[in-house]
Prior knowledge:
Elements lengths: L2 E12 L6 E12 L3 E5 L6 H9 L6 E6 L2 E2 L7 E4 L3 H4 L6 H6 L8 H14 L15 H14 L4 E5 L7 H17 L3 E5 L3 H7 L2 E5 L6 E6 L10 H4 L1 H15 L2
Parallel strand pairs: 3-8, 3-9, 6-7, 7-8
Antiparallel strand pairs: 1-2, 1-4, 4-5, 9-10
Helix pairs in contact: 4-5, 7-9
Amino acid sequence: MTELLSVDQIHKVYGSGDQAHTALESVSFDVRHGEIVCVVGPSGCGKTTLLRCISGLSTPTTGIARLRGEPVTEPPAGLGFVFQDYSRSLYPWWSVAANVAFPLRGRLPQREIEVRVDRAVEAVGLAQARDRKPFQLSGGMQQRVAIARAIAYEPDVMLMDEPFASVDAQTRAELEDVVRNLRSEFDMTILFITHDIDESVYLADRVVVLTPSPTTVREIVEIPLGAERDQIKTKELDEFVHLRGHIYRAVKNR
């Protein structure tokens, strides 16, 4: 796999002088085409700050992210973003289909928008709910809408910021499988922020472990669990248990 997204020595400082706070300190890693990379670390270590710097929503103090070799200085066309607070990202007066279509309006012909919306809604299992409003959906279904909207945009890289943090365990497991299936169906590359170590091992091809703030990369862990994964069988594997323990110790610096 070839490198698609690179994070090169990103350093982020808030404030100045005695009030300066270093959130990120020389964070570097890459994401290869077609892989899922999860980022984990202690609470408050700056995972969301890092993702904002990578996406162009925030400017690093020094360092840079590159997409296909091009510096990211503002949100580029090739990046999609799924936020943690999905409910605030949906327009309550619009249907599922209208919410998914929103980023495409004015960019594509109407027929192409309809084709993309149909495919995205079907891919996340919401074909029967396309005419409902967000308030008529469960939290997990609302997050599926947010994911569908991002994939309809057909980005080169999907950035996901703890997208399942607010849903129950069963819904989280279902959505994890949705993400892995989407990676295959849409040939997606995914950078996924999570605080859940089990989730990182189940989803990822590699896991980037961050240190406490001021944050840098402690370790990058390969996850050799194969392409086909199952919520029960995979998580019962000795290798899964070993990797989970290894990453937990790395996060806790034990």
